[in-house]
Design brief:
Amino acid/polyamine transporter I; transmembrane helix; two-stranded antiparallel ribbon; 66% helix; transport; 2 strands; mainly alpha; amino acid transmembrane transporter activity; 20 helices
Length: 495
């Protein structure tokens, strides 16, 4: 059997039209979906981790990660406008580089979406449990964290995952409306932080600017500016979820590029302002031992942070800075806003994952019954419920730990494949209509720059994360060989 078979773009579009979802989302809703997916655990939680890896140099890390995402977003915009169907990077790879690689991209996207959803659910549960405690309510310890965090069952993370899954089953429009409200709440919280922290910034807090240097992609330490960029990349992940909504978008040729690029621009501006405010107002020098920065999340780091008042030790960095500036009430309000609004990220991650599974099922790489659409709600309810159940199960047992970096590994692989796909299609199908088109003079610098950037950031992840990614890829290849290769629609087509 030929695992390199390509599914023509015309066939992909025709299949989507036969088993389509209802088109009901506009440019504003798509932009809100993108912002909802992007602004989350990354900026509210990982700011302290980035500071530990790079100190004030994390400002450069934000720029590096944002630049790589911007280049990839342009590639996504061209392909999403040209092929307005669900499936994101999986679909584009299928049309350009073949079925086996498309399967691997779809398999890698599980790390971006489902693993991210579980990670955000666990991170959010920490905020919510703290909020309950401040009101005099406290769950037993064994219900506050999962088995791998010395507990038994993370009840809050489990419950919020199932609640969001139910919302997604009820309908896309309803989900988008709830998401738009939560996005506005998150943006309001970040705006409050920026207004208070940026004017309080002091030049002295930016010295030394590069306490851990630039870092090396080959060191495997994950430290330095590049290591922080590889981690903070998680703060940008999610804009591509807009492309998974292509089949539910009105006028997708126009609105998908607006949603992709618009959401990324808004979030990049906020991230730079938030990073500048956090560093300038409170300082962000890493914890060092014998001249070497400690690894965030390590036992050594936890021990060094005992009794130490330092931004890099905080689990709620933005609230920490506001309290230090003498605004404890504002710090509480930002923490409250994060507790209320972070579920929008879980919503978008589960939403994106179900749409990718929906498309893979429609192509026969997963069982066909998974792509069944509910007769009343017009949503892929079967795969939504299955995905939500697994996200809830993982969230109930696992810790946040290195999940962000693991998610980044899969995302970087997908972004690189999409950028390569744009270049290949420019030569194999130069006359195909492109409603959104990267200028010819810029297509090589943009797409090659995106691929190189993704490779550099992937290599800058720590060695454990890279090993987990390759192990995950190996499992995916086995599943494809046992099921997908034989059951795909392309395999059943008469030659």
């Amino acid at each position: 059997m030929n695992s390199f078979r390509v599914k023509p773009l015309d066939d992909i579009i025709a299949t989507a039209e036969k088993h389509s979802l209802t088109r009901q989302l506009g440019a504003f809703q798509l932009t809100m979906l993108g912002i909802g997916a992007i602004i989350g655990t990354g900026i509210f939680v990982l700011t302290a981790e980035a500071a530990q890896k790079a100190g004030p140099g994390m400002m450069i890390s934000f720029i590096i990660a944002g630049s790589v995402c911007a280049l990839a977003a342009l590639a996504y915009a061209e392909l999403a406008a040209m092929v307005p169907v669900s499936g994101s990077a999986y679909t584009y790879t299928y049309a350009v580089m073949g079925e086996a690689l498309a399967w691997m991209v779809g398999w890698a996207l599980i790390l971006e979406y489902a693993v991210s959803a579980s990670a955000v659910a666990v991170g959010w549960s920490g905020y919510f449990n703290g909020l309950l405690q401040s009101m005099g309510l406290r769950l037993p310890e064994y219900l506050r964290v999962g088995f791998f965090s010395s507990g038994a069952f993370n009840l809050v993370a489990f419950a919020v995952s199932l609640l969001i899954t139910a919302l997604l089953v009820l309908g896309t429009t309803e989900s988008a409306r709830v998401n738009a409200f939560l996005v506005l709440l998150k943006v309001a919280a970040l705006t409050v932080f920026v207004v208070v922290a940026v004017p309080a910034a002091k030049t002295a807090n930016f010295t030394p600017f590069l306490p851990t240097g630039w870092g090396s992609p080959l060191s495997g330490s994950g430290l330095g500016v590049l290591g922080a960029a590889a981690s903070i990349f998680f703060a940008y992940v999610g804009f591509d979820a807009v492309s998974t909504a292509a089949e539910e978008t009105k006028n997708p040729n126009r609105n998908i590029p607006i949603g992709l690029i618009g959401s990324l621009i808004v979030c990049t501006v906020y991230y730079l302002l938030v990073g500048y405010g956090a560093i300038g107002a409170d300082g962000a020098q890493p914890m060092m031992v014998n001249g070497h920065a400690l690894q965030p999340g390590s036992p050594q780091m936890a021990a060094a942070c005992q009794g130490v008042h330092n931004l890099v030790c905080s689990k709620e960095a933005l609230s920490f800075v506001l309290r230090d500036l003498g605004f404890p009430s504002l710090g509480y309000m930002v923490a409250l806003a994060a507790s209320i609004a972070l579920p929008s990220v879980i919503l978008m991650m589960i939403y994106g994952q179900t749409r990718i599974f929906f498309t893979m099922s429609r192509d026969g790489l997963l069982p066909k019954r998974l792509s069944k659409v509910h007769p009343r709600f017009r949503t892929p309810h079967v795969i939504t419920m299955i995905t939500g159940a697994f996200v809830a199960l993982f969230a109930s047992q696992l810790s946040v730990g290195a999940l962000a970096d693991i998610s980044n590994a899969g995302t970087l692989f997908a972004f690189a494949m999409v950028s390569l796909g744009v270049l290949i299609l420019r030569y194999t199908q130069p006359d195909r209509h492109r409603p959104f088109r990267i200028p010819n003079a810029l297509v090589w610098p943009i797409c090659v720059g995106a691929v190189v950037g993704c490779v550099v950031l992937f290599m800058s992840l720590d060695i454990r994360t890279k090993l987990i990614f390759f192990a995950w890829a190996a499992v995916g290849l086995v599943i494809y060989a046992l099921y997908g290769m034989r059951h795909s629609d392309m395999a059943r087509k008469p030659r």
